[in-house]
Amino acid sequence: MAIVTCPTCGEDFEVPAPGPLETPCTVDYDCEVCCSPMEITFECEDDGEGEGDSEITGWARGLVE
Questions:
Q1: CA angle 44, 28, 22 (to 5 degrees)
Q2: Of the four, 5, 28, 41, 53, which is 20 to 30 A from 60 by CA?
Q3: Residue 49 — pLDDT band, cuts 50, 70, 90?
């Protein structure tokens, strides 16, 4: 799971994250609090130790202005 912040209402919530081999990617998603549409971009941050302890981070961009 990854925590993202809604660009419309400012609330944080968790979303299912893709696997490390599926990143980077962008998905359409609706805020779980205010239902506003957004795009979430997921990226994989490798810990550099090569042990598979990669962290998936996500950030959101609003689709309505």
A1: 30
A2: 53
A3: low
pTM as predicted: 0.80
Instruction: Give the E-state strand segments of 1-65 in sequence order.
Output: 2-5, 12-15, 25-30, 37-45, 55-62
Helix H or strand E segment including 35: none
Token pair for 57: 């981070």
3-class state of residue 6 by DSSP: coil
Instruction: State residue 53's pLDDT score.
Output: 66
Q: How many CB atoms lie within 10 A of CB 31?
A: 21
In the block, tokens 């979303």 appear at 15
